[in-house]
Amino acid sequence: MTGERADATVLWDNVLAGNARRVGEVLRAYGPRTRSELVTLTGLSRPTVAAGLTDLTDAGLVTEQPAPSARPAGGRPAAVVRLTRAAGLALGVDLGRRHIRVAVADLGHAILAERAARLDLDADDHPAEVLDLVTDLVDRTLEASCASRCDVVGVGLGIPAPVTRQGGIGSAALFPAWADLSPGEELAARLGLPVRVDNDANLGALAEYAWGAGQGCPDLVYVKIATGIGAGIVLDGRLYRGTAGTAGELGHVTLDARGPVCRCGNRGCLELLAGGRALLENARLTRPEVADLEELVRLATDGDTGCRRLLIDAATQLGYALGGLVNLLNPARIVLGGDLGAAAGLMREPLRRGLGDTAMAAPVRAVQVVPAQFDLRASALGGVALALGVDGAPLGVDTVAPIA
């Protein structure tokens, strides 16, 4: 390894090697660490870690700083080592049906810039146009970070559909215009960068568990309530994707086998009762001026009787759907995020009542229902985590400098 500057992907693919690479990979996945923690996490001896850090320091890729004050008191705090901006950047992209959000972070887990844009078209029906808009927003967000694509080591893309382990769409009925595409490959071709793709709720779970409302909780369910409803599941400190990669399709749990037909092809799905489309359709019967879910939540929290009733009923139905999952998995925490995350205070108790009607008493008593810390940012930050490789690390290890 030399001190000559290389493109970030070349640096990680071809330049970093041996013990320096091993130490660098651990810092990339876990964030800033003390030397003692690096010994434990790499499995290398203290002198070997020190030699790797010397190589990384000589190349300008790491820096050593005093530990944050939040670390345990008593004696002089150990310094922490973190990757510098010269090591590269990670991109997270959240592609929703009506929005795009992009986040840029350095490999030391610090967010550098975020940008969001509303879509004037429905992402379900216009994949090529939407991916072109994503590419443009990525470049504008990098420009705000005084960076370019050559600084990026990887991209994590979240989409509002089940994603197979091969990166394809897990249900053609839920994202029909995208069914024959590989979204990660399509975006990689536009950006010239490596892209990993996952379901947006999985990425929300990853961000909240690594840095947010689920931190330190090894068994949790993150619920993203937006146009549709999805869940990201963390079990024993690992993101659970299922055999095919499509675990967590909470919105398509059947609540009424004789109910109306859902776009997935089944009947009586939760999404038809509590998803964003259904809520807005019902709200507009009496409040035709309601533009989006954000306005619906605002009206409900301001005391509008009809809007409050819609969210309370939706939360109860959500509790019914989560009851079986709580019985099966016995999670410690349910994290409410997405467009309706801001209404978590209003929805918490009716959700718990729904759980009480469908799950056993012991797991209901044990589970906490909490609002997401990152709210609408969660999936984009989860994309950053995916690009960093956080999903491959045992997430139960505390972070030193959480993303904010």
UniProtKB/TrEMBL annotation:
<dbReference type="InterPro" id="IPR000600">
    <property type="entry name" value="ROK"/>
</dbReference>
<dbReference type="InterPro" id="IPR036388">
    <property type="entry name" value="WH-like_DNA-bd_sf"/>
</dbReference>
<dbReference type="InterPro" id="IPR043129">
    <property type="entry name" value="ATPase_NBD"/>
</dbReference>
<protein>
    <submittedName>
        <fullName>ROK family protein</fullName>
    </submittedName>
</protein>
<dbReference type="Pfam" id="PF00480">
    <property type="entry name" value="ROK"/>
</dbReference>
<comment type="similarity">
    <text>Belongs to the ROK (NagC/XylR) family.</text>
</comment>
<dbReference type="InterPro" id="IPR036390">
    <property type="entry name" value="WH_DNA-bd_sf"/>
</dbReference>
<dbReference type="InterPro" id="IPR049874">
    <property type="entry name" value="ROK_cs"/>
</dbReference>
